Amino acid sequence: MNYKERISALKSFKRAVSSGETTDSVSGISTEISDWSGYADTKFDDYVDTIQKDCKTLAGRKTEFLAAIDTIISNIQSQFDYEYSTYSYILSTTYNSKSASKNKSLKISAINNLWIDESVKAALKSHL
User: Fold this and answer.
1) CA distances from 54 to 23, 49, 59, 98 (A)
2) What's the gap between Cα 78 and its chain centre?
3) Cβ count within 10 A of residue 67
4) Judgement on whether residues 68 and 46 belong to the same structural domain of the protein
5) Do 48 and 82 fall within a single domain?
6) pLDDT computed for residue 27 by the predictor
7) Which CA distances in Å does 66 have to 44, 53, 103?
8) Are residues 54 and 18 in the same domain?
9) Could you list the residue range(s) of the whole structural domain that residue 116 is in?
10) By percentage, how much of the chain surpasses pLDDT 70?
């Protein structure tokens, strides 16, 4: 999987995670139920309190997780940008001044011989 495919897959995964419901929709729930008292009332209070804490924790973890995905995407994009800028000199290099087609062919050959990601090679070739 090349850099661009990884970025696309991570963005798709992030969209799927983002669309999932993890909002804290129970924080305002009241535990007051008329005619309940004693152990049942305490047990229900504890249950609602646990659910409220879990919802709050999950919402926070989702935010952290999505931020981690953004960091990974940014790192991959940075690596792509670095490789592209490192080898973009090939685009302006003249290998054969007598023949434009031969010059282009030699540039393509030079790009193909690089040990870089295929998406970087494709981006370089698209600017020939």
Assistant:
1) 11, 9, 9, 71
2) 13
3) 9
4) yes
5) yes
6) 63
7) 33, 20, 45
8) yes
9) 94-128
10) 85
- How many domains does the structure of the chain reveal? 2
How many residues are recorded in the chain? 128
Q: Please indicate, yes or no, whether residues 76 and 109 belong to a single structural domain of this protein.
A: no
- The residue assigned the tokens 């804490």 is 53
Do residues 43 and 12 share a domain? yes
Closest CA to 15 of 74, 75, 70, 61: 70
Please give the C-alpha separations between residue 123 and each of 19, 32, 67, 107, 116, in angstroms, as whole numbers. Answer: 32, 63, 27, 13, 11
Helix ranges (H only) for the chain are 3-19, 38-87, 89-92, 100-112, 118-126
Residues 6-55 have pLDDT tens digits of 999 999 999 988 887 766 666 666 667 666 666 767 777 888 888 888 88
